[in-house]
Amino acid sequence: MSKQSEQILEEQLVAQLQKMGYKYVLVADENALLANLKTQLEKHNHIQFSDSEFEKVLNILNKGSVFEKAKTLREKKHHIIRDNGDNLYFEFLNVEHWCQNEYQVTNQITQQGKYENRYDVTLLINGLPLVQIELKRRGLEMKEAFNQINRYTKHSFSAGKGLFHFVQLFIISNGVNTKYFSNFGKHKQEYLQTFHWTDEQNNPLNNILNGFTDAFLEPCHISKMICKYIVLNETEQRLMVLRPYQYYAVESIIKKVQENEILNGYSIEKNGYIWHTTGSGKTLTSFKASQILSKIPAIKKVVFVVDRKDLDYQTNQEYDKFSKGSVSSATNTDDLIKKFNDPNVRIIVTTIQKLNNAISGRNLSKMKSVENERMVFIFDECHRSQFGDTHQNIVSYFTNIQLFGFTGTPILAENADGEKTTASLFGKCLHKYVITDAIRDENVLKFSVEYIQTFKQKEHIVDLKVEQINETEVFEAPERKEAIVDYIIQHHDQKTQSKKFCAMMCVQDIDSVIQYYEIFKRKRIAGSHDLKVTTIFSYAQNEEEIEEKIAEHYNLAAEPAPEYGNKTIPHRRELLENYVQDFNDLFNEKQNIKDTEGFYNYYNAVAKKSKQNETDILLVANMFLTGFDSKHLNTLYVDKNLRYHGLIQAFSRTNRILDKNKTQGNIVCFRNLKDKTDEAIVLFSNKEAIDEIIVEPYEKYVEQFNDAVKKLLTIVPEVQAVDALYTEDDKLKFILAFRAMMRLHKKMSHYTEFDWDDLQMEEQHFADYTSKYLDLGVPNEPTEKISILNDIDFELELIRRDTINVTYILQLLVNFQSKNNPKDRESIEKDIFNLLNTEVSLRSKRELIEKFIQESLPNIEDTDTIPEEFEKFWVVEQDKALDELVKSENLSEEKTEKLIENYLFTEREPLRKEVLALRVEGRPSVLKSKEIGDRILHKILGFVDTFVSGIAGN
After folding, report:
1. Biggest distance spanned by C-alpha atoms of the chain
2. What b/e sequence results for 40-72 when a residue is b if at least 16 CB atoms lie within 10 Å of its CB, and e otherwise?
3. How distant, in Å, are the alpha carbons of 755, 862, 881, 945 from that of 876?
4. 755 to each of 332, 745, 750, 764, how far by Cα in Å?
5. Mean pLDDT score, 898-906
6. Average model confidence (pLDDT) for the chain?
7. Measured between alpha carbons, how far is 878 from 863 in angstroms, rounded to an integer?
8. Residues 6+ away with beta carbon under 8 Å from 331
């Protein structure tokens, strides 16, 4: 009987591992495993154990859960009392010098537990089974191997001395596809938590014999993964292994630091940043980098810097999960200074504001002792935090530091908008893992973006020029907001899978937040919905009053409020206090915003409710749109102008993976952001995007600024002259002239050599002109905007959905068949054929779907059976097409099916020689090989595109 392909694969793998330095050992069962373990531990520790001494070693190994055994494995020294009373110290694994261990490979170990199980290939390090590999023959789904490991976990891994609880990593493969994952122990193992290994450029190494084994299972590398790149999550008591892009990012930072242990002064060339798309696990990456760097003797401190207080708290909580007490979070500036001066504190988490305070004014003398210390600063979300004077203050004060940044949306040349790019502040990008990489690898969810048209203009207003129309009035119209809230109420259950998940809504500004909240609240009181809507926004002590017409329309002054002059319009703070009370009533809490600490506590309470899926909709203007992670959030309603990094950051609130039910992030846009979305996706998917702008030398900006000063002084020779500007034209000339100066000042202020003495205007005069500029505001445009509110119908209509597939067509067919009105049927039929013509993924299916509509659909009476009848129709047509393909090219049907199956599993286009091997009459002549091979391949790819791609969509 011939060998099964799985057995051949196993033999080839074992042979390859032996060539790489693993010694083969025959281990039939647990007794042989224990005997080999004794020999290997003796060899590794250069000692001999008596039988009774080895029993004591086994007692140490036998204690605890998978998580506790992982800690036991990594402990530096273990201790037993020898038979003669002496102390004996030994280790199970050399963690510090991970290559200095003993490596063996074995296969087909039999373990008797609840049932007898036989394991495929086991890698032993110092005799302990630390890596378990399960194989399936080519063509079978990898998930079978995954399920098999789950079965072993329940049935036999804990049997006997429980040595298989020491497995740190599992590998599953069907030859052409290979994944790895950590041992979750008692926790439910999700297939979502299995990962492909890649090279540094994110190219998958899927073939276990051709790429994966050489890269991942090489003895030193697998040891490094176990010793350095598995995080023991203390809170959840489970092992977390880093994904390849996380590994390469940390390695690149470590390399940069080790190359520059002695800095000899600050230099941007010695810094760098990591571009990993939002939602891909930057916190774990940054933690691991901080942890490893803090153990380098030359590095006295690693400082992790966030730009908001809530992220300070969130990061500290996350870090504490990974390793209890491993980081020290500063509660205030004095506490931060104390931690800087404490040599025992190796990792600090702080906000950029506290850091800036610590190196300013009266605190300078307290920080003197650390000014020249060798430190590494890691900046979270470095596309935000590092613009402005603070960056300059940090690099000017500390003389012996390196800076590293993490961002999912770097500031590149295209989206810089006059600011400095991420590269110009942090140096070169050290590793990239962009949004398309993450979606391909299923490390974040894809987006389904819907664009909802919220109003229709009546025909006669198209004669008006665009600049004459008051667009803001239309978008902020109360009637439009009412219609949007009605739409959300109607569709919220569908979007969130009957509230299995929750949503966020981002709107244009704080006044819009207030208006939307009031509508939701009024409709809830009226019984139109039972959605739990929460909100939070910032306010200033001396801000402008809410416009009277807005207050009137939304009945904001309905409750008694303190009077301001003759008005009873509440201040935004008073409104937020009302909303906090609504929150307390809703969740039986006692939050208040009487002071800063109260506001911060309310912020955390709002965040917690969303993270725990207790809130239905979190309504915001700007808060929570970056850095907020809630795995239960799957929908974002957008009534806000977004672009570039702001758009991707906001959309990415929905893309965190949770479970098999959360398949995508739903984005519902009530503004047409289609072009902006495409623009942002293209920019942040482009690894070749230009990340540096060639800037002018400082002297050039000084020259331009001084020229601008001369121009300004011809309009207003002194500050008081601004008050004498009478006409709108004169005011506009001043505004434009001073705006040019402000822009130049902003660019110059980033330079280390910036000095007011170089400029022909004193700093105080500049500040005085700034006040006049702000007080004056922009004068009214010469052409008055025309209101078109009376010429608009506020009604909502889906104008585009960007995740469209056969399932969507079937839903349209159900609607089509259920309509009796000929006009309705005609409208839906038109929509279907329009989709078939325009949607790229459906074009190849057009002919068949049209055939189904014309021939099968009229005979279906029960609309619920349409999907089932369509599937039957599709299978018949698929079989016909395959039969036609095989006969027309005289191919082996069995081989063709297998080749298509492999192509679907591996996503690797078949080679010409594989295609030609399908021919019954064998390979054609050399001259005809290319022509015939390409023709058959084209037909196979066409078959897959028509019958498989896009069919099982969500």
Report:
1. 104
2. bbbebbeeebeeebbebbbebbeeeebbebbeb
3. 78, 21, 9, 17
4. 31, 11, 11, 14
5. 76
6. 83
7. 23
8. none
